[in-house]
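Worked example 2:
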Amino acid sequence: PTCNDFHSADVVGGVTTNDIRYLGRGHFRQAFAIKGGTELDLTLKVLRWRSGVDDYVGRIEKTRMDALVMERLTHSPRITNIHGHCATSIVVESLPGEIWEFVVPNDRVVEKGDLDDKEHVDNKNKMSPTEKLQLALDISEALSELHGFQDGVIVHDDIDLGQFLRTPTGKVKLNDFNRAKPMLWDPVEQKYCKYYNGHIGGKMR
């Protein structure tokens, strides 16, 4: 999708302030739910302004990578659908279901001592063993779409539980590919080059 397509799309046409809801923010973007401008509910992600941060070229490249991965994997029912992007903004399908709230219903950071079971198994959520196995399978299959991509392995590079969301029908989809990178191939050695992860902030990885 091109910038012209992005700006010509009727994403917010006829939308009032009551149809736009702030969802939250990540490291460099903030997200808004848009309802009413199209037949589909959408999510608009835009650059988050931060004082003293002006690496816009880097932000544009990260948004391009996010859009590119979704476009290349658009056939997959396990990857978030893209509806358009331009510069540092992107529009994707609405994925209202937070996996995190089911798996970790309390504080997301748990102290090691709190994980010890005293006399019996202390289930930290209300999920049954079958539900846990199904969720683990759904997450693994979504990630395998990147690792098994026909044109070469794609590294997500930012995996945590918050990157997996549910559709209104309950399907799990992988989200947020702005740190993604294709692994390079060595034609002489006939193997993938070593991948260096580098530094990632945050407590959940």
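The chain has a mean pLDDT of 80. The helical segments are 3-8, 56-72, 99-103, 129-147.
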